[in-house]
Amino acid sequence: MIWRCVHAPVERRMELFALGTAALLAATPASGAPASPRPEAQPALPQTAPSAEASPQASPVPTGLPSNEQPHATPAAQVAPPVTYPEAAAGYGAKAGPAFYLARWAEDWSSLRDPAKRTGPFDALKFIPLDADGDVYLTLSDEQRLRHDTITSPGLRAGKDTNALLLRNFVGADLHVGENFRAFGQLASGAILGSNPGNTSPVQRNDLFVQQLFAEVKGEVAPGVQAGIRVGRQDFQDGPIQLVSIQENPNIHITFDGVRAYASSAKARVGLFDLHYVTGGPDAFDDPTDHSRRFSGVTGGFVLPTDLFGGSKLYLDPFFYRYRNRNQRWGNLLDREERRFYGVRLYGDVGRMNIDINGNYQEGEQGGRDISAYQLFAAQTFAMGEGPSAPRLGWRADYASGGGAYGNGTLRSANILFGTAPYFSYGLFLGPSNFFDIAPTFTFSIGKKTRVLAEAAAVWRPSETDAVYNGVGAALAGTQNVRGNSVAQLLRLNAVHSLTPNLSFTLRTEYLKAAKALKRADYADALFLGIWGTFRF
Fold this sequence. Notes:
It comes from Sphingomonas desiccabilis. The chain is mainly β. It has one domain: Porin, CATH 2.40.160.100. It is built from 5 helices and 21 strands. The protein has an 18-stranded antiparallel beta barrel. The protein has a two-stranded antiparallel ribbon with strand order 1-2.
């Protein structure tokens, strides 16, 4: 059914989706949903080369990268997307504090319809009524980020340090017409300066980019069942952050052109999507649809019983992704790849313990050879006290298969899609293909406004005959020709200070100590240091 639905014509696809959705949601008990988990257990991150994204649960701990604004006090406007399914697991991506999402379309400021509730400094811009009753209204948003990055041994090669000053500006408008129609648009621009600034591609330097522009129709299609369809340019974050994200780290987010349909009840949700990548250019409005790369599939979600393990708030999200690239490189072969991902994610809270476990199997074809690969990601933290500011002790372990990229047999190198690279390396030195790491983590607060994550990781590669890959999925040249499984050791620190609900500062650093697989291919130790300020309303 899934395979027929994803590959059917659009009209037939929507019909199959509606039939399948009705059957699924009708069979799911519509008992009341549990309260959303506390902020550090909400879904999210980088979704960042080092980024400001939040954790897979918008929590600093399980992801290895804390939320950029978790310590924020909640502003006057309480923001919660109006869905029957729990907000913490609805697939909106990372939160940037209690009120904001990294994806600004996920915010709902309709509570400010009452003028008496517009008490914040920017509340007048979050609900601008366009008719007498306030049924038609406009929400404006803005984000400014000023950041400086320093990297020694760029590309892990001895040489001149990278020093880059980066500036980002996002401006968005969300038009609501009644309860059933909306149109959302967001323009983005990015600039990069400095001596030896490194990557100056359109994800960093871009005069003006249509980052999002979509129309959405939604409503209640049955008692307790919400459904909708979204058409146009949009991001995609419905799944594990190790695979899908907005890529918060560079100046410009990754976006797609296409269609998404969804439905949810109190205990279950389902989504169907068919998207093409967008190719950005450095100038204004030179960002066409990339028809050579396509991403489609089906996602789902279930709220698990709260009496599991003596009391819990757990979610189970199965997913199927289909990725097609007419120009995919593995080893020395550049050819068409079609890869299918079958995966599941289990995450949430069990008492003071937070867990996030997901895995996927990948199969398909590239250039006439078969693909058989897999990835496993696991993270767990334990709160050493009560409340969101309590210290948390934890660990994470990640495994991604490798092998076959430089041969003629089955390709076993895992594809990382467009996941959050800083989850594995703030400096994007390493990424999850032919990759295995283990890292203890410790998160703590300094006062009421600063949250710190410390982490030490050891990294190996499963296959000595496959390369070591960086955070964007590119092979580190020559590593496939040297022996040795040990890749590197990483020391990482991330600190976020939330000065106000709208303004935060982030300090992030990482030191990579090269081990056998890198040293024998003449790669060097490296240090990454990033500091930035982010203003949002």
